[in-house]
Amino acid sequence: MRLSLGISTCPNDTFIYEALIAGLSRSPFEWDVHFADVQTLNEMVLRGELDVAKVSAQIYPQVQDRYHCLRCGGAIGYGCGPLLLSSTGDVFDSSAPTTLPGQNTTAALLFKFWYGHEFGGKPALNYALFNEVYNGLLVRKITQGVTIHEHRFTWKRDGLHILQDLGAYWETKTASPIPLGIAVAKREFSADLVQQIEAEIRESLCVARNREKMVSPFIAQKAQIDDENVIVSHIKMFVNDFSENIGEAGKRSLDHLWTFSNRL
């Protein structure tokens, strides 16, 4: 059976899905893979263009009539949230615009969660691709912005200033892990087919965890950064037991997120 799959080029996604993409033994599936930034993947799923995809957790209420939320293959965890950074100093300017990595990303929602609790009202916002946010901060084209993925590990080296760890703020306020991303599959698929897809994702993750070297050439080639130590840190932070099974804690965190999303 041929299915379309959408994932990002970030190391946690390529780590989890590499063996699946390469072709697992006795697999019933052939995968047509689309690599894109998370905002683009969100938009593709909102249009119903992908059979299976890794997307921002916050968009699920908008697509739940067309997609199942899978119990594996996502990104939920502790100490792994997006960072609000500044290119100029250590004080957040609530009157200035903040640049977010896509309108439909969980990072955008976590920023609004923080801003609502701390300031109230609606913030001034701009949007850009996640790498454009970081690069804009580096050249001071952007004063303050929310960064995700590998940039969690490079901001200090690059002379930027942290204003808020949005994931840590979420954990404190909700007493739950940070629900960054989920995998989804079309709701038209039977329960048996969804279980097969989940089993394939879990087998792919198992293959990755059991190989000798964590960073394969495939992962290194797709990554947005060429520092292998950063790639390793990224995988260790974002790939965890929730990647295999979101469990009850993961479900609670998603419910918190979707409840907040529905209030906006």
TL;DR of this structure?
This protein is α/β, with parallel strands linked by helices and 264 residues long.
Fold topology:
Elements: E1 2-7, H1 11-22, E2 30-35, H2 38-46, E3 52-56, H3 60-63, E4 67-69, E5 75-77, E6 83-86, E7 98-100, H4 106-118, E8 125-127, H5 130-138, E9 144-147, E10 161-165, H6 166-174, E11 178-186, H7 191-210, H8 217-222, H9 228-238, H10 241-244, H11 247-263
Parallel strand pairs: 1-2, 1-3, 7-8
Antiparallel strand pairs: 3-11, 4-11, 5-11, 6-9, 6-10
Helix pairs in contact: 1-7, 4-6
Notable traits:
alpha/beta, single chain, 264 residues, 43% helix, three-stranded antiparallel sheet
Task: Provide structural commentary.
There is one protein chain. With 264 residues, the protein is of the alpha/beta class. The chain is built from eleven helices and eleven strands. It has helices at residues 11-22, 38-46, 60-63, 106-118, 130-138, 166-174, 191-210, 217-222, 228-238, 241-244, 247-263; strands spanning 2-7, 30-35, 52-56, 67-69, 75-77, 83-86, 98-100, 125-127, 144-147, 161-165, 178-186. Strands 1, 2, 3, 4, 5 and 11 form a six-stranded mixed sheet that branches. Strands 9-6-10 form a three-stranded antiparallel sheet. Strand 1, helix 1 and strand 2 form a beta-alpha-beta unit. The chain starts with a strand and ends with a helix. The model has no long low-confidence stretch (mean pLDDT 95).
